[in-house]
Amino acid sequence: MAGYISRTAEFADAWDDGLRRRRGRIWKRAATGADRQGTAMERKITKAVFPVAGLGTRFLPATKSIPKEIMTLVDRPLVQYAIDEAREAGIEKFIFVTSRGKGALEDYFDHAPELEQELIRKGRDTLLGELRSTNMDSGAIAYVRQHRPLGLGHAVWCARHLISSDEAFAVILPDDVITAEKPCLLQMLEAYRETGGSMVAAMEVPPEKASAYGVLDVGEETGPIVSVNGMVEKPEVGQSPSNLAVIGRYLLSPRVLGHLNTANPAAGNEIQLTNAIAMEIEQGRGVYGYRFQGQRFDCGSKAGFLQATVAFGLARPDLRDEFSEFLVQAAKNQGTAQ
Q: Is the pLDDT of residue 10 over 50?
C-alpha cells in the first residue's frame, strides 16, 4: 500500500487522472514494490486503537477512582468525543488498550436497561436517544491490557493480535479533543485514499513548545498534505526540524506494528510510536502529515481541559446565554480583585 505512485505501473494513467482532478498534481517520488501493491480496498480503514491505559496523574485526586477518559466536558466524557469522531469517519471496530482501574470505562459503553426503562416510563425521549447513542454493539468493541506503562508505541503494539497483517488502522488519543466542521479523522481518511502509506495529524506549534511533541521534518507540500522526511520525538529546544507537531490522530500501515515488534526503548524506557513510523520513511515508504482544519484542545492538561469546557459550554444553545453572562461577570470580578 502506500505511498508514492509509480508512473511506470500499469495503473499509473488512471491514478494520474484522478489525482490531477483532485489535487492538480501527482506525488513525484517513486514507490517501492511494496507500495505499488496498495489497493482501494486495503485503504478502507475500519479499525481504530484507543490507548487509554494512562494513570491520569495530572488529574489526581479525581483519577484515583475515575478514569480520566470518562471525565466530562459539559455532559459527555472525553472518550465519547473520540468515539463519535471515529464513527463519523466510518470506523466499525474499536480497540481499547486499558490497564487496571479502568472498569468504569468499560461499563460506560455497556447498555443500561434499567435506566432506559425509567426514561421510557417518564417519556424522556430526547434523553433516551442520547443515552442509547453511547451504546456499543456486541462485538464492535474489544479491550486489551497494557500491563506496564512503556509508552504510546507499546500501547499500540498491545493491540497487534486484533489487527491483520495486511490491515491499515487508525490510532486516536482521546486526550486530544478536536472540534471541526468535518471531523479530523474523516479529513485524514479522505486524503489517505489518495496517498496510502501512513499519515499523522499535524498542526503548527510555537517553536518554544515544540520540545513537548513529536515534530515533523517536512518535504513537499500539496495543500494540507505534507510529505515527511523524518520525525523527531520531543526535540531539544532549538533543535526542532520544524514547528509542525504530531497530534493524536494516526492512520498507520500494518508494517508499523512489525517495527514496534523490534523497536528499542527510547528515553524513559518507552517504546515511541514516532520511531516506528520513522522506520517506514527509512525504508522508502510514504509517510505524510495532514494539516487538519479545526481546533485542538489538549485535555490531558488541566488548562486545556478547562479551555475545552468553556468552548463546548459556549457552543451549546441551551447553556450559551447563562454561561457567557457568568464568564463576563467572573472576568470583571477577577479584574477588580487584581
A: no
φ, ψ at 308 (rounded to 5°): -65, -40
DSSP per residue, 101-170: T-HHHHHHTS--HHHHHHHHHTT-HHHHHHHHTT---TTSEEEEE--S---HHHHHHTTGGGS-TT--EE
Q: What is the CATH number of domain 12-300?
A: 3.90.550.10
Residue 287 CB coordination number (10 Å): 28
Per-residue model confidence as pLDDT tens digits over 32-42: 334 433 444 45
Q: Are 157 and 112 in contact (CB under 8 A)?
A: no
d(CA 299, CA 78): 8
DSSP state of 257: H
- Within 8 A by CB and 6+ apart from 125, the residues are 119
| The pLDDT of residue 275 is above 80 | yes
Outline where DSSP puts E strands in the chain: 47-51, 72-73, 76-77, 93-98, 141-145, 169-172, 176-179, 198-204, 214-222, 225-233, 244-252, 287-291, 295-298
C-alpha distances (whole Å) from 48 to each of 85, 90, 203, 288 are 11, 10, 21, 18
Q: Contact, 285 vs 227, CB < 8 A?
A: no
State phi, psi for 123 to the nearest 5 degrees.
Answer: 70, 25
**CA nearest 215: which of 198, 197, 229, 225?**
229
CA 323/CA 36 separation, integer angstroms: 54
**Burial group, residue 315, by CB count within 10 angstroms (0-12, 13-18, 19+):** exposed
302 CB burial (10 A radius; 0-12, 13-18, 19+): exposed
Residue 100 to residues 53, 91, 115, 149, Cα–Cα distance (Å): 8, 26, 27, 11
Residue 269 neighbours by CB under 8 Å, 6+ apart: 150
Q: Would you say the pTM of this structure is higher than 0.85?
A: no
Domain boundaries, the chain: 12-300
* Residues forming a β-bridge with 69: none
55 Cβ neighbours under 8 A, 6+ residues apart: 63, 99, 101, 149
Residue 328's H or E segment, with its range, is helix 320-337
